[in-house]
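hiii so my PI (J.) wants the whole complex modelled not just the main chain, which honestly fair. so below is everything: three entries, each one labled with what it is. i double checked the lines twice but i was tired so who knows lol
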Amino acid sequence: MDIFLQQLINGITLGSVYALVALGYTMVYGIIGLINFAHGEVVMIGAMVSLTVVTSLLGMHAPLPAALIILVALFVAIIVCMTIAYGMEKIAYRPLRKAPRLAPLITAIGVSIILQNLALMIWGRNYLTFPPLIQPTAHNIFGASMTDLQMLIVVLAALLMGGLMFIVQRTRLGMAMRATAQNPQVAGLMGIDINVVISAAFVIGAALAAVAGLMVMTYYGIAHYYMGFLLGLKAFTAAVLGGIGNLAGAMLGGVLLGVIEALGAGYIGDVSNICGFPLLSDSMQQQCAASDGQVSLFGSNYQDVFAFFVLILVLIFRPSGLLGERVSERA
Amino acid sequence: MSNAQARDQTVTAHGRSKSIPPRVWAGVVLIAVALAVLPFAAALIGQAWVRILNFAMIYVMLALGLNIVVGFAGLLDLGYIAFYAVGAYMYALLASPHFNIHLPFWVILPMGAGLACIFGVLLGAPTLKLRGDYLAIVTLGFGEIIRIFLNNLNAPVNVTNGPQGINLIDPFRIDGFALSKAGPVLGIPFSGPQKYYYVLLLLTIIVIVINLRLQDSRLGRAWEAIREDEIAAKAMGINTRNVKLLAFAMGASFGGIAGGIFSATQEFVSPESFGLFESIIVLAMVVLGGMGNIPGVILGAVMLTLLPEVLRYTMEPLQYALFGRVWIDAETIRLLVFGLALVAIMLLRPAGLWPSAVRKRELEVARAPEGAE
Amino acid sequence: MTQLTLLTAKDISKRFGGVQALGDVSFTINHGEIYGLIGPNGAGKTSLFNVLTGIYVPDGGSFTFDGEPLDRLKPNDVAERGIARTFQNIRLFQNLSALENVMIGRHVRSKAGVFGAILRDKNTLAEEAAIEKRSYELLEYVGVAKRANDLAKHLAYGDQRRLEIARALATEPKLLALDEPAAGMNATETQALKRLLEDIRRDGMTILLIEHDMKLVMSVCDRVLVLDYGRKIAEGTAAEVQNDPKVIAAYLGGEVSLNLKGA
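here's the output for the full assembly
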C-alpha cells in the first residue's frame, strides 16, 4: 500500500509536467488540426537553455539566490522557446495551411530533426547534469514522501493551467482562439486575425513547454538533446487521452497518464512475477531462489511502453478521448 | 479521335501505354548493362561503395513496400521500420549461434515476410479505421513498442539479447559457399559485396516487378479508389477494411524480406537500427521521390542512401581543408541536411522530386490561392 | 404483386441528435420503374439514400430488397446486393481517368486478388480485358467515351455527372439510386439526361431518383414519393402528387390545414 501512495505522488508530479506539454499540442491541434511533432523539441530547448543560464549564473563570482537564478533561467527559456515556436509556425507551417494533412506533418518531423541536431551541435552529445538548486527536503505524507520540488512542480503547473484557462475563457484573445477552433473561416469573416490567433496558440504553448522543460530537468537532474522526443510523444498521448482539442482534457489526460505510468512501473514487477507459477524450468527456479522469489517478466524498463499502449487503446476504443465530443460523421 | 482509336491508345493516368516503342527498349538495355557493371566501377573507388550500393537496394525494397501503404493506399505509417525489424530479427534468430539454428536464407526470408505480414495484419486490424494523423501516431507507437521489446527481451529469458544485439549472423550461402567471402565465379574474381550485389539486384528487380503489377491491377485500383475517396469506394462495393489490411500486409511483407537481407549482409543486428528515425527516413524516400510513383520512389531511395555517404566523404575533408578541424561531424550534418530537406521539399515541391501526375495535381491544387479553381 | 416489387421500405426512422431526419417512412419501388423522391430542402431525401445504402444505420424500420432484408449492411455489401448510387456533390475519383473510374465500378463483380495481380495468370488477364472492355462500353453508353483517358476532375460538369452514372452502372445494380443528377444542368443537358434515364429504364434497370427539377421529375418518373421534414406526405403517380394540396403546401409554405381543425 505504501508504494501506491508514493507512486501516486510521483505520478501526479510527472503528470503535471505532461499536462503542461499536452496543452501545447492540444491548442495547436484544436485550432489548425496539426500535430506539432516538433513541440517535444521545444520542451528540450527550454530545458537546455535554462541549464545554460543556470550554470553561467552559478559560475559568477557573487552567488545569487537560487530562486532568482531559476526565475532568470525561466524567463530566458520562455523567450527563446516562444521565438522558436513563432518562427516555426511562420516559416514551416503557415505556407502549408491548405495542403493535405501529410505535408505539414512531414514538415513538422523535419523541424523536429533540425531542432534536435542544432541542440546536438550546441550542447553536445552527452547527458548534461543539472546542479541541484532546490534542496531535496522530503515531507512525510501518510508513509510516502513528497519533496519540496514535487510540490513546487505541482503547484506551479496548477497555477499556469489556471492562468491559461483564464486567458482562454475571460479574455478577448481567448475568445478569438475558441472561435477560430470552432470555425476558422467564419472567425476570419468576423474580423478575427487568424494568423495572430494561431501564432498565439503556438507561442503560449511554447511558454508552457519551456517551463515544463525546466521542471523535467530539475526533477530528473539531467538533460539531453534527445529528451524531447519521448516526452513529446507521451504528452501527445495525454492530450489524446483527454480529448484532443479540449484544454481541460489535456490537463486531465496529463495527470492521468503520469499516474498510470507511475503505478504501472511500480507494480509491473509484481504483476509479471513468474515465480509463483508451476512448470518453471530449472534455471528459472534457480533465479527465483536467488532473487528472493521475484523474477519479473517485465520490469520498470518497460515503463515507456505504457504510454504507447494507452495511446493505441484510447484511439481504438474511444478516439474522442475522455472529455472530447463524440463526433458523428455526416456523409 | 474516334472511339476506336481512343481505345487502342489506352493510356492510364500512370502514363503507361500498351505498346512499348523501341526507344524505350534501347533505354532498358542501356540501364541493364550499366547495372551489370556498376559494382566493378564502384569497386574502383572502394569496396565500401559496393556495400553502399547494396544498402541502396535494400532501401529501395523498403521504400517500395512503404509506397504500397502510403503511396497507393494513402495510409500514413510512421512505424514501418517495425516490420523491417521483425524480418531482421527472425533471420538473426534462425541463422546464427544465438540459438544455434542455421537455416538457409531461402527458407528464412519467406518466413520473415510471413511473420511481418502477420504483424501487419495485427497492427492494421484495429487501427485502419482511424483518421489519417491518428493512424500515423498509432503506427509510430507500434514501432516504438517493437523497438522497446527488442531492447528488453533479454531477461528473464534471453530472446533478443537486448541492446547488445545478435552478431555472427550467417551470410547467404549458395551450394555451401558463403556470399560474403571473396572468390571467383566462372573465372572472374568477385568480392563478397559484389556477389551480394547480384543476388540483391535480382531480388530488387523481382520486388519492382511485383509492385508494378500490383499498381496496375484490380487491387491497385481499389487502393487508389480508397486514397481518392473512401466513401465513394465503399459505395462502389470495395471492402475498404480488407483492402487496406492487404496494403498493410503487403507493405509489411516487403519490409520483412528487406530486414532478413539486412541481417545477412550486416551479419549483426541490434535494436538501435530500428528506431523512429529509420521509419522517417523510409517515409522521406517515398515522399521525396513522389508518393505512389514507382520510378520516383526508387529514385528517392537511391538518392537518400547515396547522398549522406557522399556528404560524409566530402564534408569532413572539406572542413579540415577550410578550418583545420572538424566543427560538425558528418553524422550531424547529414541529419541537419535531412531535416532541412524535408522542410524545403514540403514547402517548395510537395509532390516530390519526380511525382506521378496524379499526386502533383492533387497537391498543386491545394496550394493554389482560393478562387483559382 | 411481390414479383413486381423490388424494394420495400417500412417505417424507416433516423435521428441525428435533436433532428428527426426521417420519421416512419414507408414506400415500395417496383421493377422497371423510375421512382422519384422529392421534397423541400432538408426533407430527408439524401438521408434516406444514406440509410438505404448503409452509410447510416436506421434507428427503426427495415428495407426488403429483392425479397431479402437489408439489415445493417455495410455500404460495400449493399453495392454487392445490387444497389448502386451517385452522390449529390459528385464523388468521382478525381485524379484517376474516366475509364479508371468506371473500371473501379467493376470491382465488385470481379475477383482477382493479390495473387492474380502478381502472377497475371490467364484468368486474371482475361478478367482485366473484360473489365476494360465493359468499362469502355459503359462510357460509350453514357456518352463520355471521347474523354476516356482524361482525369475525372478535368471533365465538364455534365460529363462528370454522366461518368458517375456510368461508374454506378458498372457495378451491375438492380436498383440505380441517383442523387440530383440534373443539379446544375441547363435545359439541353437535362433533356439529354432524361433520354439517358429513359434508355436505362428501357434496358431493364429500376431507378430511384432524387431531383429538384420538377419538369424532369414529372416527365420521367412513373411514381413519386414526397418527403417533408422527414415524413412521407404523399406517394403516387406524378400527376397525383403534383396536385396534392399537402405537397403544394410543403413546397410553397401554404396553409397547413390539417391540425388546426381539431381532432
